Amino acid sequence: MINESTLRERLHSELRDADHGLAPVPADLERGKSALRRRRIGGGVAAVALGSAAAAVFATTIGATPNGTNVRVGDDQFANGGPGVSMGGNAGSGSGTPSHREGQRVPGAEDIDRKFIDRVYAATAETLDSRGERLVKEFNMQSNGSEGDLAARGITMGWQAPGDPGLGMVRVLIVAEGSDTSMRNFATLEGYQATRPMPVPGGGTAQVSRDRSGPGFVVSYVQDDGERVEVLYDPRFGNNADTPTTAAAPRIDDVLELVASDRLNLK
Amino acid sequence: MGTARDRQFTDYVTARRGQLRRTAYLVSGDWHLAEDIVQTALTKLYAVWPRVHRKGNVDAFVRRIIVNCAIDELRRPWRREHATLEGIDVETASGLSTEDRASVVAAVASLPLGQRQVVALRYFWDLSVEETAHDLGCSIGNVKSQAHAALRNLEATLSSDLLATEGIIS
Predict the structure, then answer these.
(1) Half-sphere exposure of B49 (CA within 13 A, CB side)
(2) What's the pLDDT score for residue A135?
(3) How many CB atoms lie within 10 A of CB A115?
(4) What is the pLDDT of residues A132-184, one digit of tens each?
(5) What residues in B contact A42, CB-CB < 8 Å?
(6) B48: which chain A residues are within 8 Å (Cβ-Cβ)?
(7) Which residues from A are below 8 Å from B44, CB to CB?
């Protein structure tokens, strides 16, 4: 068997010899400062957008897109949808038999970072559905804030078993540090139990609330960098499906692993 | 010079940048990609420096970004593209050249991504199994199985001469 101690020494010596890279510390500092400046400038704009959104209590969904433009996307496409967060991209036909379109864009929000969607989808798929049998790559997107600094951003994905006539949903929302945007801003979560703490891998603690009358749940966790990750599972995908999915809900342990994932970042 | 944040950040980067870059290389197998990953990680670090520094877990914060950032980078479509020549066999990861069979780092590069992450954290950062699991956000059992598989694969990949003469095998 390989000697672990010798392996460590070899790795250090070979990498030290092979690495001829410079250490441009001033450039690192400048990049960090620039990013922070952009974040702070954007924060002011985001606060204005949030204020406007909070004042607008509509039956339909309305909010601020990352480019600061308000968009109206019609009837609520989510279970328990509400104001304050823009949502877009019709995730299903509304007939209970979902279409499987991939990579839909949010109307009026062409500048939304596609990489964010891909990253969140990949992390969710690998954690909750490693066998690739449940998570449906069609999504709606939610965002709150402005291009410079988003207060929150998330996507909603389908959840169903092969041949399943129904459709459930998994929503992942990432909220900036200090923002009070929450899943509760756009999901009433009526009938959910009070939250209770559950440990996440690595020692942190998430807050978990379950639906009293079904398999739905919402998990919330503040990551080390201050961003809060919330994951909602609902067996029925809002107005996009009349029929709840027959698939088993994601395992709560997997969801606890997902909310702690460092791949879930606002940017 | 600048604020306390700038000074502390600069001190940290000066001390750690090389180690971080080599970690990124060990996971990604590409020096250019490693540089991109480190720059991304340090930019994120600066934004949250006061809190992360206060909690005393700067290394852990950056390590997590690096090992996970590598996954995102390597899965980008343009990273997955491989040019091939029709009719010519493409060298597989297990088919290392004689020269590479004498290099532990080259052998690590031939491992699957999950095993490379574990090797980087367990054997380059010298983290415990528990710390590695925390960084990767996975179970301790998963780390153990990945480490075992990595060592088994390295033993099969490295040349017998190297294993014997360098004392890598016990």
Answers:
(1) 20
(2) 92
(3) 11
(4) 889 987 667 777 766 566 788 888 899 998 888 888 999 999 988 888 777 76
(5) none
(6) 177, 225-226
(7) 35, 225, 265
For B28-76, how does the pLDDT look when each residue is reduced to its tens digit (9 = 90+)? 888 877 887 888 889 888 988 888 888 888 999 899 888 877 766 555 4
From B10, B47, B138, residue closest to A39, measured CB to CB: B47
Is the pLDDT confidence value at A231 over 90?
A: yes
Enumerate residues 6+ apart whose C-beta is below 8 A from A16. B22
Query: Per the CB < 8 Å rule, is B105 touching A11?
Result: yes
Closest-CA residue in chain B for A261? B137
Rg (CA), chain B: 18
Q: How far is A92 from chain B (nearest CA, A)?
A: 26
Tokens of B136: 């990767």
A40: enclosing H helix or E strand? helix A25-55
Predicted-complex ipTM score:
0.78
- Smallest Cβ–Cβ distance between A202 and the set B26, B46, B137 belongs to B137
H helices present in A58-106, as ranges: none
Contacts of A119 in chain B (CB under 8 A): 72
Give chain B's length.
Answer: 170
